[in-house]
Amino acid sequence: MIRHVVFFRLGSSEAERAADIRRFAAPLEALVGVIPGLRSLTVGADIGLLEANWHAVLISEHDDREALAVYANHPAHIEAATIVRSLMIDRATVDYEV
């Protein structure tokens, strides 16, 4: 199994950030059951203890490397990801075997 972790830094103000995260979380979380090999996907918002922290994280689990590639290139994922891409100013990703 592969765990895919993506950290996002958003361009929105602190007051707008929670709404922006909800706006992109819902369509991404809805991909479970749509994309083969995608076992789970959750988006979480940072609780704001440190200003240097990333604003949001996406954690998804995939059957294997091939399933992660299917997810990355699936039209439903590409469409859902356009929302977060319009809001983010930076991202970092780590993929690892579980």
CATH architecture: 2-Layer Sandwich
Distance between the termini: 5 Å
Q: How many domains make up the coordinates?
A: 1
Gross morphology is globular
Number of strands: 4
Series of secondary-structure elements, N-terminal to C-terminal? EHEEHHE
Q: Please outline the major beta sheet.
A: 4 strands, antiparallel
| Helicity range | 25-40%
Instruction: Return Rg in Å.
Output: 13 Å
Task: Describe, in plain words, how this protein is organized in 3D.
- By secondary structure, the protein is α+β, with helices and mostly antiparallel strands.
- It has one domain: Alpha-Beta Plaits, CATH 3.30.70.
- It is 39% helix and 35% strand.
- Helix 1 (14-29) runs antiparallel to helix 3 (75-87).
- The radius of gyration is 13 Å and the shape is globular.
- This is Stress responsive alpha-beta barrel domain protein Dabb.
- Residues 2-96 form the Stress-response A/B barrel domain.
Provide a concise account of the structure shown.
The protein has 98 residues and is of the alpha+beta class. Helix content is 39%, strand content 35%.
